[in-house]
Amino acid sequence: MTEKKDPMIPDGDVNPIDTDYKVGQDNILVNVGPFGLDIHNRVFAISGLMVVAFVVLTLAFQNQVEPMFTSMRGWLTSSLDWFFLSAGNIFVLVCLVLVVSPLGKVRLGGTEATPDYTYLGWFSMLFAAGMGIGLMFFGVSEPLSHFGSAFGGTAMENGVRTDWAPLGAAAGDAEAATRLGMAATIYHWALHPWAIYAILALGLALFSFNKGLPLTVRSVFYPLLGERVWGWPGHLIDILAVLATLFGLATSLGYGAAQASSGLNFLFDVPLGNTTQVVLVIGITAIALFSVVAGLDAGVKRLSEINMILAVLLLLFVVAVGPTLDILTGFFANLGAYFQQLPALSNPVGREDANFSQGWTAFYWAWWISWSPFVGMFIARVSRGRTVREFIISVLIVPSLACVLWMTVFGETAILQFVRDGYEAATKAELPLQLFSMLDALPLAQITSFIAIILVVVFFVTSSDSGSLVIDVIAAGGKVDAPTPQRVFWCVFEGLVAIALILGGGLVALQAMAVSTGLPFTIVLLMSAVAVVKGLMSEPRAR
Question: What is the 3-state secondary structure (H, E, C) of 142-188?
Fold first, then answer.
């Protein structure tokens, strides 16, 4: 049997950073019963205590925190929407510049490095970790919401628009409302979010595999901060990354629990409410713990591939039994509408559609940014051996096209059910239930709805598992082989944070925490974009 190569040792030429810092030098070893812990003394302690305090206080003052979360989310998205939208645009532009520039020839892991995973395995992990739960939750509900608000037209009250339609709406025009609704949906799920992920993932991979620094967020900032990244500036960056990841994940887990409980109620009359959602979070977190113990290749990779197969089967089924021709032509029409409306949708100032740009886009960008340490580090870990150009094209274009296809298949089907057949069940259902209502109008509804629930659950598990793995690496000072009980700790607390937020205000509380942690991390990401370009400029390029 051949010995497995250390991924941190480069193959070929690199330009490493000369530093005396050793991975884990600030860590402390603690024995808790039979378990040994290897944790960064400041990052783990501060972030861990803050999370524990948040859970305890939110559960103790459930009634008092709900209005606080509501007002906090409203203020952040209404006052700083321009900042979130501008940052999203910057990330896309930086990625596109790197693709066409000579810097795209730099290979992650050294000039002779080869990829660790096949394209199929790589894309499966990118997709499952990056957007799984969100696509299941919003695949029907978001296109329907934007179509409905656009079709209904604009509404004014005291000189201010009160509708939620994107841009200028499309009152009474079903075709125009469909294209505008799909363009707005794709805007939230294509280039911008994946550019957010790609920037941080590229930085983590570059400074770890090429520069020889620990696989943690602070390492990306070495070109800007120098040796200070090993002190308190670096501690704060990593603590912020842990909190952003945890609350971003908790938001997604909350969405997953809401949708799974709605599906179980739809199929088996399981009672709706917080109790069911909490039980689901507990059960799925328990499953995630088994995956955590199994490790990356045996756990996340296998579950991601299973989920990819199920998702493709469900998508092909809807294409086959739904409005097939409309879906196929709609894919290209929606892609065209997206590029046509992109300049207006991404405009950060002077917007008339404040409800849409603040309530939808600003929240989404903050949510994606709060997810970026988790998805970014996960993408970095599985992307060694790719050139920068290959990396960005794959991370940006392939998942974006997959999202366009998914949204077109599920969203367009639901819209056409309403426009052509007069089927209103999906449009009138609560957001978590709209996917199941759409499937109910198609053949084999019981089977497809059950598959959808399984998809939500397994996406839930892979997100929780991957997230705990990433948080643990950050909280262990960049050690990728830290003791398993640490990942168990973070996996359990992801579930507890989700439960606390569900009980302390539901989806509004989940959204509020995603936005509030996404805000400071947006500044971190903007700085990291500069650091990544500086780091790439000093690297030898692959032949």
Answer: HHHHHHHHHHHCCCEECCEECCCCCCCCCCCCHHHHHHHHHHHHHHH
